[in-house]
Amino acid sequence: MTAFNKTTTAQRRTRTALVFPGQGSQKAGMLAELAQQFPQITETFAEASTGLDFDLWQIAQSGERLDQTEYTQPVLLTASIALWRLWLDLGGVAPVALAGHSLGEYSALVAGGALSLIDGVRLVHLRGQLMQQAVPQGTGSMAAVLGLTDEQVEALCAKVSTDTGEIVDPANYNAPGQVVIAGQSSAVQGVVALAKEAGGKVINLPVSVPSHCRLMQPAAESLAEVLTATAIKMPNIPVIQNANALIEADLDQVKAALISQLYRPVRWTQTSKTLETLGVSQLVECGPGNVLTNLAKRMTTPMVSYPIDTRSRMDDALTHIAVAEGKLA
C-alpha cells in the first residue's frame, strides 16, 4: 500500500489537518448556538435529510433516537460536514490532510469530495443498521483499558479468546495507554478482570454494539455489497484511513479499508504519527465536542488541537490557525 502524494502546492505548505470524531461525541442540542448565527448549519442538515426518511436536525436537537446507532451515525456525519463547510466559509485554512475516528472516516471522505453528503448519510445509516443486526442486543460490549501498553492489552485479549473460545479484540488504539476492547460481553469482562489485576484501569462503555471486532464481519460483508454500487472517487484532499493509518492511492483500496474498518481496530495512535510525517503541527476537530482534541494531548508527541462546535471555539480556532499558518501577524 502506497501513500497518496498528489497534494497541491498550497496544501504542502499547510501544517493543519482536520479530524472528524465518531460515536460518543453526540449530544442533544449540538450546534444549536452556531445554527442561530449561520444558516449553513441547518441548510446542511436539511440537505442531508433529503436522502433519508427522517429529520436529522430534529433528532440532533431533541436527542430522540440519538442513542440508536443507525440514527447517531448520520446525525454525527451531518454535524461534521456542517462544521467543515462553515470552517471554509469563514476563511479557515485548507488542510493538508483529513482523518476521522471510526464513523469519522466517512465524514472525512465526504469533506474530501470522495462521497456526496447524501450518499454518505445513506451509507452510515445502513452501516448502523447492519452493525446492530450483527450482534443481538446485550450480547456484546466495549470497555476502555487505561494504563497498560498496546502489547499487554493484545496479549490479554488473545488469552481470553483462546481460553474461552469467545471473541474479544482490541478495537481502538486511541492513544498511548488507552486501548478500547470489544467483543462478546463475557469475554470483554474476562479481559477487564485481567487488566485490573495487571494494574490497569477500566471504563465500561455505554454502547449498543461492539464495534471494530470480529463480530462485525457479517456487517462488513453486507456493507461491501452496497459500497460496490455507491459512487465513490478518490478524495481531493488526502484522507488517512482507520484500518492501516495510511493514505491510499488506489480507489479499490479506499473501499477495502472502509469495509475492513468495521471489524479491524481504529489505529488512531498510528494515525497521529502519520499526520506528523506530513508535517502537521495542529488539528481542527470538526464535530461536536472535543474528544479528539483530548486524545491529541495524550500522544507521544502532543499536538495542539482546536474544537469548533461553538462560536467562541470557532473564532479561537480561526485566529490561532491563521497565526500559525502565517496568515495573520
From TrEMBL:
Keywords, comma-separated and alphabetical: Acyltransferase, Transferase
Active site: 102, 212
Residues in Malonyl-CoA:ACP transacylase (MAT) domain copies: 19-313
Any one Gene Ontology BP term: fatty acid biosynthetic process
Gene Ontology annotations for the cellular component aspect, listed alphabetically: cytosol
Gene Ontology terms for molecular function: [acyl-carrier-protein] S-malonyltransferase activity
InterPro entries with a match to the protein in the record: Ac_transferase_dom_sf, Acyl_transferase_dom, Acyl_Trfase/lysoPLipase, Mal-CoA-ACP_Trans/PKS_FabD, Malonyl_CoA-ACP_transAc, Malonyl_CoA-ACP_transAc_FabD, Malonyl_transacylase_ACP-bd
Domain of life: Bacteria
Catalyzed reactions: holo-[ACP] + malonyl-CoA = malonyl-[ACP] + CoA
Key word Cytoplasm present: no
Enzyme class name: transferase
Recorded family membership: Belongs to the fabD family.
UniProt-listed PANTHER family: MALONYL-COA-ACYL CARRIER PROTEIN TRANSACYLASE, MITOCHONDRIAL (PTHR42681)
Protein name, UniProt field: Malonyl CoA-acyl carrier protein transacylase
Organism: Aquirhabdus parva
Name of encoding gene: fabD
